[in-house]
């Protein structure tokens, strides 16, 4: 699990900000709060989060609300920005065939890898690599389906409430 995945699980507001235009603010907030230096490199922040003990994880979780309040003070809703960003991506690509091509290509890769695993004997040591590759491709395929159908019911509800 990456440090950003860990952060997503315990501090969703900060993690969401890291994926958007306020990534610098989120990084500086975390670095200042937990490393004592807002200009600490990302790798130090990564090591801190991945090595955090339960007490530190609880502190990170508590800081998520503090970060949210700071963003609200300056009129920023990071979740609204995320929804707008995804909406913009769909809008910008509405006349492009590329999202469809990528989705179909990922679907073909999944079918190919599954067929290879069931009907062919992979070289010794390659079976684990094929399983890993299948996991990565399925994750990206899932993301491409989210592009077409939306991410989750909760996200759809959030979008409805924001309008």
Strand content is under 5%
The computed structural class is mainly alpha
Question: Helical content, roughly?
Answer: over 70%
| Rg value | 20 Å
Query: How many H/I helical runs?
Result: 9
**Main sheet specs:** none
**Which runs of at least 5 residues are low in confidence (pLDDT < 50)?**
none
What is the arithmetic mean of pLDDT? 78
- Care to count the β-strands? 0
Can you tell me the number of structural domains?
2
Order of helices and strands: HHHHHHHHH
Task: Give the N-to-C terminal Cα separation.
Answer: 34 Å
Shape: flat
Structure in words:
With 163 residues, the protein is mainly α. It has two domains: 3-73, no CATH class; 93-162. Helix content is 79%, strand content 0%. It contains nine helices and no strands. It has helices at residues 3-10, 12-18, 23-35, 42-50, 54-73, 78-92, 98-119, 126-149, 153-162. Helix 1 packs across helix 2 (12-18). The protein is flat and about 55 Å long. The two termini are 34 Å apart. The mean pLDDT is 78.
Helix-strand blueprint:
Blueprint: H1 3-10, H2 12-18, H3 23-35, H4 42-50, H5 54-73, H6 78-92, H7 98-119, H8 126-149, H9 153-162
Helix pairs in contact: 1-2, 1-4, 2-3, 3-4, 7-8
């Amino acid at each position: 699990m990456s440090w950003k995945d860990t952060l997503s699980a315990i501090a969703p507001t900060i993690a969401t900000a890291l994926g958007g235009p306020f990534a610098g603010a989120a990084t500086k907030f975390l670095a200042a709060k937990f490393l004592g230096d807002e200009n600490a490199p990302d790798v130090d922040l990564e090591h801190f989060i991945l090595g955090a003990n339960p007490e530190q994880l609880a502190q990170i979780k508590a800081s998520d609300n503090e970060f949210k309040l700071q963003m609200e003070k300056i009129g920023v809703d990071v979740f609204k920005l995320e929804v707008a960003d995804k909406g913009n991506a769909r809008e910008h690509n509405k006349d492009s065939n590329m999202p469809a091509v990528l989705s179909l290509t990922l679907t073909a890769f999944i079918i190919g890898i599954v067929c290879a695993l069931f009907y062919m004997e992979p070289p010794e040591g390659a079976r684990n690599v094929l399983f890993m590759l299948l996991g990565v491709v399925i994750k990206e395929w899932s993301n491409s389906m989210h592009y077409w159908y939306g991410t989750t019911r909760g996200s759809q509800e959030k979008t409805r409430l924001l309008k």
